[in-house]
């Protein structure tokens, strides 16, 4: 057994809980499940993999439930995942080295979000702090909770010392639900986030999450309002969520058919163009404004950038959009070449057949 407890909170997750637990078993982790009121077979199915199952009375606070789960663990080292997150890989030797050399730091695991749009599956990745020693961290925030250093651990040390990339990857399949399920979840989170803002006051991270929820239900006006409020505050452009907020702001403007206004993102190009997602977005913005030469240049640049969140923005999606521009502007040879660079990307394969 590894000296690591995997803490999970659940409510009516019979669709995911067994696969979630099954993926953990080969690694020898202790599994600690905190159920917040399931009416289905969640507890029964989890019982096949662990006897560390506890009940927590739901109080509209995810952090309270997750902190309770951490308290019930046998070990101080905690990996926190959700039921709809399936462990793909964990380098135990490298993880042990992190535990030894950075005991008071937070490990950011890699989460790959599986997305389906128009019948096409894609992936978006992000690093999130999920692996910690509970003596130094606890969760805060009623929704979209975050691990934060406890006061005794925070004093006198720079925050940068508290974060590192942990050698753990999980697949998040929570976006595979029906549109109605996604809408219900988003509306629930909107209510909780609005309550957090009333209690704690303006906060850019809460505005970001609120905007993302509004985007999920296609309420783009409210999404844009939230992103505007968040970006108007003093934010650090090096933080992943700030990068995502800027990109979501741009996509929301495009969804609202305000592509001319989206060109204003050129004002922050220097700060955010180190990630392929932003450069790809600028390509779309130029494309929507009929500035095709500039769009091709941005897509080509995106294809050279290593850092990315959304799968394909620095490879097949960038080349595909170059192909679309060339095809639409009467350059079939250049279009075919761009589509060939997309590999097996289905839309590109279809365009190649039509152009052959």
Question: How would you describe the overall organization of this protein?
Answer:
The chain has 356 residues and is α/β, with parallel strands linked by helices. The protein folds into three domains: 4-176, Spore Coat Polysaccharide Biosynthesis Protein SpsA, Chain A; 178-257, Serine Threonine Protein Phosphatase 5, Tetratricopeptide repeat; 265-356, Serine Threonine Protein Phosphatase 5, Tetratricopeptide repeat (Alpha Horseshoe). 46% of the residues lie in helices and 20% in strands. The chain is built from 16 helices and ten strands. The protein has an eight-stranded mixed β-sheet. Strands 8-9 form a two-stranded antiparallel ribbon. A hairpin with a 2-residue loop joins strand 6 (106-117) and strand 7. The model has no long low-confidence stretch (mean pLDDT 95).
Instruction: Report the β-strand fraction as a percent range.
Output: 15-25%
* Total count of helical runs of at least 4 residues: 16
Oligomer: single chain
What letter string, H or E per element, gives the SSE order? EHEHEHEEHEEEEHEHHHHHHHHHHH
CATH superfamily of the largest domain: Spore Coat Polysaccharide Biosynthesis Protein SpsA, Chain A
Descriptive keywords:
356 residues; alpha/beta; Spore Coat Polysaccharide Biosynthesis Protein SpsA, Chain A; Serine Threonine Protein Phosphatase 5, Tetratricopeptide repeat; 3 domains; 8-stranded mixed sheet; two-stranded antiparallel sheet; 16 helices; globular
């Amino acid at each position: 057994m590894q000296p690591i407890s995997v803490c999970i909170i659940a409510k009516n997750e019979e669709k995911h809980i067994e696969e979630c637990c099954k993926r953990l078993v080969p690694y020898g982790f202790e599994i600690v499940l905190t159920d917040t009121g399931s009416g289905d077979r969640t507890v029964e199915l989890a019982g096949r993999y662990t006897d560390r199952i506890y009940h927590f009375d739901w109080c509209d606070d995810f952090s309270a439930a997750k902190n309770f789960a951490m308290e019930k663990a046998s070990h101080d080292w905690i990996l926190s995942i959700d039921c709809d997150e399936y462990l793909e890989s964990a380098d135990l030797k490298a993880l042990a080295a992190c535990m030894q050399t950075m005991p008071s730091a937070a490990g950011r695991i890699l989460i790959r979000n599986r997305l389906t749009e128009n019948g096409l599956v894609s992936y978006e990745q992000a690093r999130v702090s999920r692996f910690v020693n509970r003596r130094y961290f606890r969760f805060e925030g009623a929704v979209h909770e975050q691990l934060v250093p406890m006061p005794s651990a925070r004093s006198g040390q720079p925050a940068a010392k508290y974060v590192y990339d942990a050698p753990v990857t999980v697949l998040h399949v929570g976006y595979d639900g029906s549109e109605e399920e996604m809408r219900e979840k988003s509306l629930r989170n909107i209510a909780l986030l609005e309550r957090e803002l009333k209690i704690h006051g303006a906060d850019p991270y809460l505005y970001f999450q609120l905007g993302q929820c509004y985007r999920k239900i296609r309420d783009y006006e409210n999404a844009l309002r939230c992103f505007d409020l968040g970006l108007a505050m003093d934010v650090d452009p090096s933080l992943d969520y700030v990068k995502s907020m800027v990109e979501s702001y741009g996509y929301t403007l495009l969804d609202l058919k305000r592509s001319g206004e989206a060109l204003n993102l050129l004002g922050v190009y220097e700060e955010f163009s180190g990630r392929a997602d932003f450069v790809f977005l600028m390509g779309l913005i130029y494309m929507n404004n009929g500035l095709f030469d500039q769009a091709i240049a941005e897509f080509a640049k995106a294809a050279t950038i290593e850092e990315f969140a959304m799968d394909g923005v620095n490879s097949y999606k960038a080349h595909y959009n170059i192909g679309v521009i060339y095809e639409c502007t009467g350059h079939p040879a250049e279009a075919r070449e761009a589509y060939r660079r997309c590999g097996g990307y289905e839309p590109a394969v279809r365009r190649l057949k039509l152009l052959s």
